[in-house]
Structure formats: structure tokens, C-alpha cells
């Protein structure tokens, strides 16, 4: 539905994430989308697991294609319509910070304005800036 700028998703529309529990207590993650220039579909498969050092089952570590684990924190969810997911990592030998925030929705049409307003208020309360969110294109899928 909406996200902070993330270079890996710049030229994608119809972004989707699918999560499936696995027998070893990890989660299979499939992120997919359609390239807005070429029209080709692409996907990447990864895995997530609860961060053993976090003491909170909503704080996950996710990895794609052999890259190092990255934080994937479920900040808020109603378990039905939406989830807010946040990730923040230091990059370039701790000289830069990569901060990503997604509002994920089950329905491509998104959420109501009332729900969106409540989520934005929650983000402000926890120190995240909703004005940096950009809509994801979910038409022509």
C-alpha cells in the first residue's frame, strides 16, 4: 500500500509479499512485483525467523539470497487488514542508515482513510515519519 523509498522497489508496481510458515519454525517469504519499464514479473525468495535476541515475537530477522540478516519488525497489525513493518540497518561500514517502513495491506485497494489516519497517528507517536511514505502502484497487475 505505502512504503518509504527503497531502491530495490523503485521500478516495481503490484508489489506483494507472501508469508508461509515452515516446519522448522521459520517463515518462507516471497516478495514479488512487476517491473514498470519492462512489464516483466520478478520475485525473490527469502526466509524469516524470530530474532532470538529481541525477546519479542514481532521482531524478526529476514534474509534473501544469502545476504546477511536484516531486521523486520512488525510494529502494528490488526491481523486482518494491515501490518506496519519497519526495518533499520547501518550500511556502508556504519556511514549510512537504511530505514524502510511499509504499510502492508491484504487488499490491493488498501485501507480506509480512517484506518490510514489512525496508522499515521501511531507512526508519529512512536517517532516514525508518515510524510515519507509513498503509495505503491497496485493497478494493472
TrEMBL record:
It comes from the Eukaryota. It holds the Pfam family Lipocalin_2. Keywords: Lipid-binding. Coiled coil: none annotated. Gene3D superfamilies: 2.40.128.20. GO terms for biological process: lipid metabolic process; response to reactive oxygen species. Belongs to the calycin superfamily. Lipocalin family. GO terms for molecular function: lipid binding. This is Lipocalin/cytosolic fatty-acid binding domain-containing protein. Residues 15-137 form the Lipocalin/cytosolic fatty-acid binding domain. One of its GO terms (cellular component) is cytoplasm.
Amino acid at each position: 500500500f505505502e512504503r518509504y523509498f527503497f531502491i530495490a522497489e523503485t521500478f516495481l508496481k503490484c508489489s506483494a509479499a507472501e508469508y508461509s510458515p515452515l516446519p522448522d519454525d521459520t517463515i518462507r517469504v516471497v516478495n514479488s512485483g512487476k517491473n514498470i519499464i519492462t512489464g516483466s514479473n520478478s520475485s525473490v525468495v527469502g526466509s524469516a525467523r524470530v530474532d532470538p535476541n529481541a525477546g519479542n515475537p514481532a521482531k524478526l530477522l529476514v534474509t534473501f539470497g544469502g545476504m546477511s540478516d536484516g531486521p523486520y519488525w512488525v510494529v502494528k497489525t490488526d491481523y486482518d487488514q494491515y501490518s506496519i513493518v519497519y526495518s533499520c540497518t547501518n550500511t556502508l561500514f556504519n556511514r549510512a542508515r537504511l530505514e524502510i517502513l511499509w504499510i502492508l495491506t491484504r487488499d490491493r485497494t488498501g485501507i480506509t482513510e480512517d484506518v490510514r489516519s489512525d496508522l499515521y497517528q501511531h507512526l508519529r507517536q512512536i517517532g516514525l515519519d508518515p510524510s515519507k511514505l509513498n503509495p505503491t502502484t497496485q493497478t494493472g497487475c
